[in-house]
Amino acid sequence: MKPMGDHFILDTKTATPVECLHYAMNLPTSVVITGCDSLPILEQALKAARSFRSMTESEVSTLLAKTAQAAQAGKYELYKTSHHFDGTVANPQWLG
User: Fold this and answer.
1) Short-list 41, 52, 39, CA closest to 6
2) What is the rounded distance in angstroms from the CA atom of residue 73 to the CA atom of residue 62?
3) Where are the alpha helices (DSSP H) in the chain?
4) Whole-angstrom distance between the N-terminal and C-terminal Cα of the chain?
5) 22, exposed or middle or buried, with CB in 10 Å at 0-12, 13-18, 19+?
6) The dihedral formed by the CA atoms of 53, 55, 56 and 59, expressed in degrees to the nearest 10
7) pTM across the whole model
8) Which residues are CB-contacts of 87 (< 8 A; sequence separation ≥ 6)?
9) What DSSP character marks residue 25?
């Protein structure tokens, strides 16, 4: 699971990177991936891991309510509405 959808979710300014990571870590996922392309981003990931605790239903509801308007139209979920994350578009030979 990529909790920030590249930078697109963060572009909404409705949730912080740590909130995104905590939300993803709270779900029944096997793996939560965050790119660590710089020392500040690595430190951010470590902060999220060290400060994580299971979210209450109220905390989840508050975060979802805070992000609901931005999420409504799918504008920031390009993995659902575009080929931005679809490697097969750039590599049709993968399909055989």
Assistant:
1) 41
2) 19
3) 8-11, 17-26, 39-51, 57-71, 78-81, 87-90
4) 26
5) buried
6) 130
7) 0.77
8) 94
9) H
Q: Quick one: tokens of 31? A: 């793996």
Both tokens of 9, joined, read 């979710």
Could you tell me the two tokens for 11?
Answer: 């572009």
Tokens 């470590």 belong to residue: 46
Measured CA to CA, the distance from residue 48 to residue 54 in angstroms comes to 12
CA-based nearest residue to 5, from 24, 26, 30:
24
Compute the distance between CA of residue 36 and CA of residue 32 in angstroms, rounded to an integer.
Answer: 12
Residue-by-residue pLDDT tens, the chain, 96 positions: 678 767 888 888 999 999 999 999 999 988 888 888 899 999 999 999 999 999 999 999 999 999 999 888 777 777 777 787 777 888 889 888
